[in-house]
Amino acid sequence: MLGTRSRSKNNAAQNGSTNAAATASGTCVIAQGTTITGKFSATEDVRLDGVIEGDVKCDKRLVMGETGRVKGTITAADAIIMGTIDGELIVSNTIHLKSTAKIDGTIQGKSMTVDEGAKYSGECKVGA
User: Fold this and answer.
1) Mean pLDDT of the chain
2) What are phi and psi of 28, to 5 degrees?
């Protein structure tokens, strides 16, 4: 029995599949196709591939995928943005705008990295 279990875990790892609980431990995932209207708050990391129409507060890291969209104010400790924001992005530490990021509004953070192709329109305040 023990040998069978070990093989199953090894086969899963080799095939690229993982245990969802282990992968998402401490991370809130808002999947593509999900729409939230109203205020959203999380004390852990957030992966956003859906749509939020309202303010977002994330105590840790927010990772917004290419299909992620927010219309409102985002507040987070760190942010990696690949999607679309119509509103404010307020980050206490690091902002990383990937090439597919589109922001229309105010950006504020301690430091920021902008990949080629990222687009933002509005006021940008970076630094201490």
Assistant:
1) 85
2) -90, 125
pLDDT in tens, 64-75: 999 999 999 999
User: What's the pLDDT score for residue 26?
Assistant: 83
SS (H, E, C) the chain: CHHHHHHHHHHHHHCCCCCHHHHCCCEEEECCCCEEECCEEECCEEEECCEEECCEEEEEEEEECCCCEEECCEEEEEEEECCEEECCEEECCEEEECCCCEEECCEEECEEEECCCCEEECCEEECC
Asked whether 92 and 107 are in contact (CB, 8 A), the reply is: no
Q: Where are the domains of the chain?
A: 28-117
